[in-house]
Batch of 2 targets.
Target 1
Amino acid sequence: APIAQKQLPTLILEKQALDAFKRAHSDTLIEAISLPSGSGLSSLHHGIVDAYIAAYRPLGQGLACQELFSFTPRLLIHDSHPLAAKGHFAFFDLLEYDIALPLEIGTFSLIESYARQRGVSRLSLKGIGASSREHAAFLRAGGAILVLGNSQMLEHDPECRLLPLRDDKPLRIPVYLVFYDDKISPGLIALKESLAGCYQKNESASGP
C-alpha cells in the first residue's frame, strides 16, 4: 500500500514512525513515497497511492480524513541568520525577513490567521522551488522557512537549524491520513493508530 507525503522542506512522516509500523505489522506491505505539494489528492484519485499524509483537511466526495497528530511550526534558517543567536522565534520576528510558507492553502490560512492575531498582518512571503538547492540558496541569502515536523534540509546542509516557536499559546497544525472511505482496510486502520501513537509518544518524551 503506497502512502505519500509532500516534498521538501517538511518531513512529516519520519522513518522511525514507519519502521515501527513495519515491525509491528510485517504481514502488511507498505511503501512511502514523496509527492509535490498539492498533488496528494490527484495521486489518490488516480490510484497512485492508497493514502496520503497532509497538513490540511482536503475537501472531496468520499474522502476520509483521520487526524494523526498536530505540529507547532518551526523556523528553518541558516546558521548565519540573525535569529540563530536568539535560539527561538516569535511571529513578530518574521516581519524583518523573507519567509517561505507551506504551499497547502489550508496550512497557509491557519498560519496567516494566527499571525494576524499576534499583530503580524504583512509578512514578506516568497515562493521557492521544491529542490534542496533552491532551499539552500534561499536560506543562505537570509530567508527563513516555516516547516512542520523535521526538515530534510538538515541532511542536505549541516549549517541549517530549526528554531522553536516561543508563544504562550503556540499554533498547532493538524496532520491527517487521507484516503477514500470505501477503501478502508485493517491495514489503514492499523497505520493510523501506529503513526498517531508513535508521534504522541515522541512528543511526550520531548517535553513541553
Target 2
Amino acid sequence: FFVIIDKEKGDLMKKILILFLIVASLVFSSNYKVEVKPNIKIQKMELEQNNLEIEKTFAEMTKKEISNGIKEIDQQINSEKEVIGIKFFGEILKGYLKNMKYEIKKIEYTSSSKANLTVNLKFPKFNNDIIDGKQEKINKLFEKRTGKSIEYLSKASSEEFQKKWLPVLMDIISEIASEKINNIKEFEEKETVVKAEKINGKWDIITKN
C-alpha cells in the first residue's frame, strides 16, 4: 500500500515541498528582534513602517500559498480518484499546510531596501503510523458504511477487494488521518531565513535564490 503511494506522489510532493518552508498558520508576534547593519542609515519611523509592511506582505504571501496549495492538492485528488492512496496522501499534506505555524524571530536589514527574516517554523509531529490505535474505529466505520464486517475482507476475492472495498477503506483511513493531524498538539521546529526586498517602493518576499 505505501509503495503504491510512494510511486504516485511524485509531482504533488515536488509542488508541496516548495511550500513547506514558507507556509504557516498566520500567527504573528511583534516580539522579534530588529537589527540594522552598522553602515546602514534608516530613520526610526521608516524602520517601524518597514517592519509593518514586511509583516503584512509576508502574511499575504503565506495566505495565498496555503490557499493555492490546498486547492492544488484537491484538484490532484479529484483528477486521480482511481489512484489508490492519493486521497490519503493528499489529506496528510493538507493537514500539514493547515496546521503549520511560524513566528518571526528577527528582521535584519542588510540595506535600506533589503532584509533577512529569520522565521521559526513549527509543523505537526507524529510517528510513521498515522492510524496507530484507530483500528477499532476503522472497523466500526467500515461496517457502518458497507454493512460488512472488516473480517469479511479476508473472504473477498482480490478483484472484489481492490475494486469494491479498498476505496471505501482508504476514504475512512484518510478521514482518520486528517482528524489526527488536526488534533496534534506536538510540533517539531525548524528555523529558516526568507529574504525581503523593497522594489519600486513596495516590499516583496523573495522565495527563490
